[in-house]
Amino acid sequence: MGRTLAFLGPSGTFTEEAVRHLPIQEELTTQPYVSILDVLEAVNTNQADFGVVPIENSIEGTVNLTMDGLIHGEKLPILAELALPITQHLLMAVRPKPLLFQQITKVFSHSHAIAQCRLFLQKYLPHVEIEYTNSTASAAKLVSEEPDQPWAAIGTRLNTEIYPLFLAQESIQDYANNFTRFVLVGKSQLDLPVSDKYKTTILVTLPEDYSGALYQVLAAFAWRKLNLSRIESRPTKKGLGSYYFVLDIVQGMDTVLMPGAFAEIEALGCQVRLLGSYPVFAYRGIGEKN
């Protein structure tokens, strides 16, 4: 029996598109789950060998459910990353007579998708009720199952291949430069091709009684000329003002610079936890993989 990969479902999500374009060199059985936490839990409990979840959008920022799941849940190493361009579409059910925009009473989608299309919604659908769903695909599925309702969904073009839906309006996102980073996580290794870009993500806990600790942490990377592409604070959930710091380093693990930086940070009284050192892949277009 082959290994399995869990992804945020149902079928038709951007996460499924990311799965299709990750250059995984092994046949995996894919299984959709209804939420990000369900995907991570499936991998944690060995119901699935690997999982793919969104972690950051270029417009809306970090996907907090994913980040907090990786921080506070069982240790699930990040194995790879894929940046996928996101194009949102207004979807309607196939019916004898298409709805006019002014006839739509409700729009369903994931909260990030709604946020990415605020200007379109304000201009063309200011009267509609917004209802959030676990994913864009679950919104599309819901609208397709109720064709008599004056509803619409925001989601991927892929949904029109899966459900009886059509594109009522294409490319409705507010910004053209809209990308989402998806990460592949798992407890075991997977056969992946060599990439021209690698990244290392760490979690740093600062000592409470050390003034200027964050500055010293950043300095440990600066003088070694290790570039950071992201630094973000996340609550430790232990009290107000208590934070972890998540750092993305634009380099894979080596035998000198990275261990040296970590040792210097730990000498300050900080705790360092490796979340993953992994290849980064870029989307190449429909039908292409890295």
Could you characterize what this model shows?
There is one protein chain. The model is unreliable at 286-290 (pLDDT under 50). Strands 1, 2, 3, 4, 5, 11, 12, 13, 14 and 15 form a ten-stranded mixed sheet that branches. A five-stranded mixed sheet has the order 8-7-9-6-10. It is globular and about 70 Å long. The two termini are 27 Å apart. Helix content is 26%, strand content 32%. The chain has three domains: 1-86 and 178-189, 3-Layer(aba) Sandwich (D-Maltodextrin-Binding Protein, domain 2), CATH 3.40.190.10; 89-169, 3-Layer(aba) Sandwich (D-Maltodextrin-Binding Protein, domain 2), CATH 3.40.190; 194-280, 2-Layer Sandwich (Alpha-Beta Plaits), CATH 3.30.70.260. It contains nine helices and 15 strands. Helix 1 (14-21) links the parallel strand 1 (4-8) and strand 2. The longest helix is centred in the last third of the chain and has 11 residues, at 257-267. With 290 residues, it is an alpha/beta fold. Pathway: Amino-acid biosynthesis; L-phenylalanine biosynthesis; phenylpyruvate from prephenate: step 1/1. It catalyses: prephenate + H(+) = 3-phenylpyruvate + CO2 + H2O. One of its GO terms (molecular function) is prephenate dehydratase activity. Residues 202-279 form the ACT domain. The record marks 180 as: Essential for prephenate dehydratase activity.
